[in-house]
Amino acid sequence: MSKKIKWKLIRSRRRTVGLEVSERGELIVRAPKDLSRGSVLEVLKEHRRWITKKLAEVEERQKFHKPRKFEEGENFLYLGREYPLRLEPGSRRFLAFDGRCFIMSSAARGGARELFLRLYRKLAKKYLSARLKRLAALNGFRFGKFRLSSARTRWGSCSAQGTISLTWRLIMAPPEIIDYVIVHELAHTKEKNHSRAFWNLVGHHIPDYKEKRRWLKKNGFWLNL
Description:
The protein is an alpha/beta fold. The chain has three domains: 7-62, no CATH class; 75-117, no CATH class; 124-222, Zincin-like (2-Layer Sandwich). It is built from six helices and ten strands, in the order E-E-E-H-H-E-E-E-E-H-E-E-E-H-H-H. The strands form three sheets. The protein has a four-stranded mixed β-sheet with strand order 4-5-7-6, covered by helices on one side. A three-stranded mixed β-sheet has the order 1-3-2. Strand 4 and strand 5 (81-88) form a beta hairpin. Helix 3 packs across helix 4 (175-187) and helix 4 (175-187) packs across helix 5. The longest helix has 28 residues, at 112-139. The two termini are 31 Å apart.
């Protein structure tokens, strides 16, 4: 394995090694608790070609992901659509969304990223919580609690106690993509692993789930500030 490649090892009660390349260009390695480091390295060597390919894809996408300037007319995502930013004069720092555009005071540009983060989290908590309850009721699922996360490499998760966690970044995705992620996690309340039974359950509720997965893999890097 090349020393230039950054990788993070996460151990859990899983049976196999899972590999994931984040949109930040970091290799996430999920491995069983009792698997030796040497065995993990062997897996990385076996999948070197795949890892190199995925890292190159991330690097290529990052070329088109320009840093935010938070200037007049700049577009920001909400539920899969782009809305422009409108700057208003004034000394009071604020940011709001009126359904047509994001409105921010000119004086707030220095702290714009933090303001957007707070607003996105607020919008996400309201929308995702309501949608989670709705989809659970419609499809016969029961879950414990809802938690809004700031995860960068996972769209959602389901704990052993049935707590559903969803990242706030989902609020930027199209509604049908959000529904897929929610159903995916709800399915884990019945099927803990990504077994054939699990995917059959997801497919029963989201017949085109494979298309939704491909969309996330291809476009997920845009769902960020």
